[in-house]
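Risk mitigation, structural track. In case the binding assays with flavin-adenine dinucleotide fail to produce interpretable data, a predicted complex structure has been prepared as a fallback.
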Amino acid sequence: MDFTLTEERQMLQDGLRRMLADKVDPKAVARGDTAWSTETWEALAEMGVIGALFSEDDGGFGGAGFDLMVVFEEMGRAGAPEPLMETLIAGGLIAELGSDAQKAHLDAVIGGAVQLAFAHSEPGARFDLERVATEARQDGDGWILTGRKSVVANGGEADYIVVSARVSGNTGDRDGLALFLVPKGTEGLDLRDYPLTGGGRGAEIAMEDMRLPADALLGEAGHAFPAIERANARAVAAQTAEALGLMERIKDLTADYLQQRTQFDKPLIKFQALAFRMADVLIEIEQARSAVINLCGHLDADRETRELHVSATKQLVGETAKLVVEESIQMHGGIGITQEYDLAHFARRLTMVEHRFGDALFHLGRFSRLRMA
Amino acid sequence: MDLSYSEKHEAFRKDLRTFLDEKLPKRLSDKVRLGQRLTKEDMEEWHAILQTRNWLAGHWPEEYGGSGWDAVERHIFEEETTRANAPRILPFGIMMLGPVLMKFGSEDQKAHWLPRILNGTDWWCQGYSEPGAGSDLAALKTTAERDGDHYVVNGQKTWTTLAQYADHIFCLVRTGKDGKKQEGISFLLIDMDDPGIEVRPIYLIDGGAEVNEVWFKDVRVPVENLVGEENQGWTIAKYLLTHERTNIAGVGFATQALENLKRIAGLEHQAGKPLIEDPLFAAEIARLEIQLMAMATTNLRVVSAAAEGNAPGAESSMLKVKGTVIRQELNDLTRRACGPYAMPFVSEALEAGSNVEPVGPDYAAPVSGKYFNNRKLSIYGGSNEVQKQIIAKMKLGA
Ligand SMILES: Cc1cc2nc3c(=O)[nH]c(=O)nc-3n(C[C@H](O)[C@H](O)[C@H](O)COP(=O)(O)OP(=O)(O)OC[C@H]3O[C@@H](n4cnc5c(N)ncnc54)[C@H](O)[C@@H]3O)c2cc1C
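Fallback model:
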């Protein structure tokens, strides 16, 4: 057992923390002045942060669960809205399933020149990974796609979108899914993009007889589900690590505020009613950290073990996120809900963790079903 | 013990329903239903409609233009108006200043100000809180110094709800520096058009600007605008706190929020079935509904006791804590019910008449903003911690 970071990861953490503290302005994100900044993105690429999400075989220098944890915890601590998650998911799928020609894009991805998105979730699918209604039918050598995708993070900015579609079976089946690599501006792809609560942008995508050449297919048609589930597990690891960073930051802000704010001639922290609640927040954040470590350490385990950890971690972190957001706002008083105070952005971003990849209730149910099975 | 409504009360409910069917403009109820922002004119319009029946301040005595409602009538009014998605009545003139003037105001003040509250001439806001005086309200620093027939006011108020629309503000100001800090406070009525007043918006976490900072620089206020005696302000503030916590439980709002949640959970799908059929999600809804059923009766018990002359003290604090937590939990679950569609932040979609379409189903557009914004419920009006302190003091000798 060893819970310390390797020297490389320690260096990555330090450098990234410093760089992001310097570049990310939570107030500006909260006001909606910037969705995310290309300058920060370039700095991430330059520091090798994007590369840290990929294995050496794929041209990166990391890619393990604990690499994701280090990177995304720092993204969270800074409240950075840059679309690293989308690169992790879509880039991961290209790395796992792509032909040599498709994988050739990864260099530019790791270098920061190419933006990615993953268009999977659909209206009415909620958090069910297998619920894909978008249809892909073969047309000579190529494919024709028709369907809708909802709340596609970074969809509007992506140079390539990995799109999931069904080649056979019914909407809720695991079999019959395929992935396609779709370049920006492909005819037949209609896109409306908009800001997301907590930073970044999302898009609604409608595909109407969108024609794709044969070489747009990513991996084998009809058998994409295991790769999607694996990518989802890595995304949940990254997202819960990001949530952890956000919680740490919120906790620090709140602890400082309770020291500084005086009412009834005392700093608020001197009121035991508040100090005890803050102590609870500290306890729960440590539990969340352990849960994230559990998941990051089991990303490469067998499917059953891995997925059990996905739901366990997501459930616990989701519940903790609610506690941390609500307690920190409450203990701040009025200032806690003003946009001009940093907490607003962090609280929004942390809360939105519950709206992607399943919330605490969804994973509570999923965990018990997986355990029972 | 009898839980049924009397004939008089049933008749009132029927009358009220007909009135709401006929007189509540659909334009307004649509906005409320869709969580869109109300304008100043919207609120004034609704106040005027209610006043055609003397229902704007129904609990005021008839001699002042109210209908002399009892506790049950107030409860019915709240229940029916929220069910019909009517705009809420602004509390500042009707729930706060009105009762203060009736109890502490001079005859001249009552004759001058009360009718203007009801006929919409004046829009009041509440100037209590300051940057350094939140829970510890008596620490307020805004000063009013006597100069002939005027007070000269200097200082800053904050969190002033809808001050951008208001033409008047009632303030707690410091008129005495000796003794305990509670002793030198007075209750003053100030015209917002007076020179030296500046209002600056504060943007909240949902992107809206419902609160403001109000700055006072050498503002001259005629002495006849003092309510009660000089340095009696703390007594007035406390009176307001213990006697006028009406609608504090928010049962009507909670009932409406519960209906909305059930509707959404019936439209959203998980695993191909309506979300409301998911046993875990259904159990969460049920847990809140059970709380709310008891809350409705707790509320009626407290208001009935109040009607018999027992000033609600700790009980109204209990209503506030429990009522706000139930509403906040309902907002939380409603946001969850919308899943990924709670993420888009399209502020324009919350402005009625804007041609920006919401992303996803229309019911999802306001849910995240509402969840964040309603964190205020446990902060303002005496935070829930302050309420628990009151309960512990009054009931437990803490
Ligand atoms: C949306 C909104 C609208 C408002 N509208 C108005 C308005 O129109 N007019 C007006 O005058 N004011 C208004 N307020 C102000 C409101 O009354 C104050 O926010 C409230 O009194 C709390 O004060 P504070 O925000 O300074 O928090 P603080 O008093 O600094 O409290 C911070 C936290 O510490 C807790 N705390 C404080 N003291 C203790 C203690 N002794 N023991 C345990 N816990 C404690 C509080 O409960 C809170 O959780 C509004 C506030 C909001 C958020």
